[in-house]
Amino acid sequence: MLPSQSTLSSRFVLGCIAALSLVTIFNVGFTWYNIVVLKQLMPTQRDYTYIGDDWPAQLPLRLPEVGLVLESGDDHFSLYDDEEWGTLFPSEGFTDLGPRNRTFLLSMIHQMHCLDVIRVGFVTNRTGAAHHIEHCLRYLRQMVLCYADTTLEDDMPAILDGKWEHGSSGVGSVHRCRDWTVLRKYLLEYPASDYVPE
Question: Would you kindly state where each structural domain of the chain is located, as residue ranges?
């Protein structure tokens, strides 16, 4: 005797439920396995002694991402405004960390300092600053490569030497940035102590 149509339908439905259950169990197991593996890859929070090379590579301060719209900036940071450029360096960029107050320079301030050195070198045209300017140009080149900003800036073609060329001012582009004002507040609150030779 052949099975009835309803018996075949019931078996088919049960087979589908069993197959879906097995796939679900497999997916849950696979997801759990991936979570375990990813947790092992995540850096663990640890305490540093700040002795020798035992210190973190980054300042342990969370900087939220913010948007930055580039502006022409013609009213600020002129080549000759030493006072305004000086506002970029709270505590000269140095801060003390760890139980023994080990002093560190924050890379962002070093980068800003290098921009300022290039500005001063350009304004004063001092040949004695050439070595410092070269250092800063090399340093900033590497930092630009490090952060590899992929923000798209609108093409603004212009005629250069009688020929149309691609160009961009970057003005109006929104960049995904870390909130540097948090870092500035930190430096104002935790400046480095004065250097005392040993």
Answer: 10-42, 82-189
